[in-house]
Specification:
Helix content is 33%, strand content 13%. The chain is of the alpha+beta class. It has one domain (1-309). It has a four-stranded antiparallel beta sheet, sandwiched between helices. A two-stranded parallel ribbon has the order 3-10. A hairpin with a 5-residue loop joins strand 5 and strand 6 (152-153). The model has no long low-confidence stretch (mean pLDDT 96).
């Protein structure tokens, strides 16, 4: 068995749902131009860090010295249990424990396994925590293709996946990108209530409900408030309408399961949520990114949105 196959088999044994490998090299010209246009149009909102380190985003070798290969993995997070529809809706990715911790822990195990096979291995693991174009590299590694909603779509599995990478100094066997696309489908563009997907694969974060309810540190844009569509923290609309997600199946990772207290978060419960309850319910959760004050702000905006219906 080749080293590459051993790595993939072990990745699957850790609970990853897809694994592919590509060469570590500068991104192609089209991707570099796509990134530059997105930055020039200021589609990153207040996330100034997205406009920084463009050279590193365009060449992972600048992040990891002597790197040769990128091992890309995906982990399913499609929920086994969902919130009641009438409750303020959280994006599925935020149901359980913070994916940064869960995925990174398993990537570290994978990295340790590789070093056990090849002691001279050097590299780093990444989970949405460094300037690396995760979806681009996952597509290069043959995991899936980038859809018009800008998300990675895995054939016969959908798009509800966390991505991670191990960048190493090993020469490995490389997978080929898939020759698939969304074709003429534009359901995500048409369904987005704020028209945040301005063109295929281009998202204006300023208009995105996910950005407004999570990353935005100020008040939610007054033009966005009436269009929140009961989205309280993040938004899954462009995924919910995607035909590829008819293949989505519940994950098998206990850490991603929501607590009963989370599932019970109705409008009334959120209205009366104390700081102590917030800390207890969202301990170890990605929801902490918005802070207690952010959730209260979101709730007020959602109440305004409902009053405008």
């Amino acid at each position: 068995m080749t080293l590459s196959q051993q790595i993939k088999d072990y990745a699957y044994s850790l609970g990853f749902d897809a694994c592919g490998i590509c060469r570590c090299e500068p991104v192609d010209v089209d991707e570099r131009q796509h990134l530059n246009r997105w930055i020039e149009d200021s589609y990153y909102g207040d996330m100034g860090y997205m406009a920084q380190n463009v050279d590193k985003r365009s060449n992972p070798a600048l992040l990891v010295e002597n790197s040769r290969s990128i091992i890309c993995v995906a982990m399913n997070y499609y929920p086994r249990t969902k919130q009641p529809e009438g409750h303020p809706q959280f994006a599925y990715y935020a149901y359980g424990k913070d994916y940064h911790d869960v995925v990174k822990d398993r990537l570290r195990q994978l990295f340790d396994y590789i070093k056990g096979l090849e002691p001279a291995t050097e590299g780093r693991v990444f989970v949405d925590t460094a300037p690396i174009l995760e979806r681009y590299w996952a597509a290069k590694a043959g995991l899936g293709f980038i859809g018009k909603n800008s998300l990675l779509i895995i054939p016969k599995k959908g798009s509800y996946f966390f991505l991670g990478e191990v960048v190493v100094n090993l020469e490995l066997e490389y997978d080929s990108p898939l020759s698939l696309s969304c074709g003429n489908c534009r359901r995500c563009l048409d369904a987005c209530p704020t028209q945040a997907i301005v063109s295929p694969k281009v998202v204006n974060a300023n208009r995105c409900i996910s950005y407004q309810t999570i990353e935005n540190k100020g008040e939610i844009d007054k033009e966005i408030v009436p269009r929140l569509s009961n989205r309280f923290y993040g938004c899954d609309i462009c995924q919910l309408v995607c035909p590829w997600n008819r293949y989505a199946r519940p994950h098998k990772t206990e850490a991603f399961d929501p607590s009963q207290a989370f599932l019970d978060l109705s409008y009334g419960k959120l209205e009366n949520l104390t700081v102590e309850e917030y800390q207890q319910i969202f301990k170890g959760s990605a929801v902490k990114r918005a802070k207690y004050t952010g959730l209260k702000r979101n709730l007020e905006a959602l109440k305004q949105s409902r009053n405008n219906i």
